Amino acid sequence: KTVRTIVALTALSLLMLTAAHTHAAEDAKTIQTVKLAVDGMCCASCLPDIEKSLTSITGVKSAKATYEPPEATVTFDSTKTTVKALIKAIGKVGYVAKVKPQTAKKS
Q1: What Rg, from alpha-carbon coordinates, does the chain have?
Q2: Chain-centre distance for alpha carbon 6
Q3: Could you read off the pLDDT of 14-68 as tens digits, one per residue?
């Protein structure tokens, strides 16, 4: 009985690991990083507003804004949000954003 239990637990563990690995691989395909040029910042004090507006969006994994150069780098799950939604969120806090050329990529 003990051997059957060990075999059953081992099989269950392998199934769980396989499912977790498959899920992680699927997630990796949908995670993207984009750099957005941000116009309208007057100083470094603007950065937290931009970062907060981005990280409040479901699907955003990370957001880092810089004053020089004026941009935001955002990593997000493309099944949960879009670049258009990121740009809109920045607009809602008073700035104008657009995708920097050649920056949309899968992570």
Answers
A1: 20
A2: 39
A3: 666 665 554 454 466 889 999 999 999 998 899 999 999 999 999 999 999 999 9
Classify burial at 45, counting beta carbons within 10 Å of its beta carbon; exposed 0-12, middle 13-18, buried 19 or more: exposed
Which helix (H) or strand (E) segment is 86 a member of?
A: helix 83-92
29: which 2 tokens?
Answer: 């395909």
How many other CB atoms are found less than 10 A from the CB of residue 77? 14
C-alpha distances in Å from residue 50, one per residue of 25, 91, 95:
30, 9, 8
pLDDT in tens, 1-14: 666 677 666 666 76
The type of residue at 100 is K
